[in-house]
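In this section we walk through a basic example: taking a raw amino acid sequence and producing a predicted 3D structure, encoded as discrete structure tokens. The instruction is simple. Fold the sequence below.
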Amino acid sequence: KYLNATPSRSTSRTPFQVTFGINARLKENLEIREMIENEWMQMFEEERDDIRQRTREKIAEVQKENLKSFNKKRKEAQKYVNGDIVAIKRTQFGPGLKFRNKFLGPYRVVRVMRNDRYTVEKIGEHEGPQETSTSADHMKPWLYADIDELESEEETEEDDSEKKRRRRDIDIVGEQQ
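The resulting token sequence is shown next.
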């Protein structure tokens, strides 16, 4: 009697309900009813704990795989010290900025914070905030170029191309003779 009045796990209905459409009226034998309910609750809790444990293991496994693939191409952030001159990445975009420089600068590092973050201040007059905080992945060292060196490199390139052109002209003239 009590087994026919106990809900099944799969249907969550009692066999009596499935057959007749109503709940069975039983003479109350509290001891049997209580034992069945306790057994049912214990099975439910064990199954729930087992599902949760398997889920924890699967989540840990996937997290480990994700960490491994993430760290594959990751490199350490460059470290800067107070006084370093850097360029910072433009983080705010708007109309007309598509062809503008991607980095602003020069800036000087004035404070080193934790987790590869820095406070920088503007050097000179140029576009960008006067002082801001930024992370190392949005910074790069500011490179100075000596204008005399650049001009001499351009002259050398021009000299090389001029020599090649003259050689070509000589070769063509030589072929015609």
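Looking at the output, two observations stand out. Residues 15-72 form one domain. DSSP finds three helices and five strands in the chain. In the next section we compare this with other chains.
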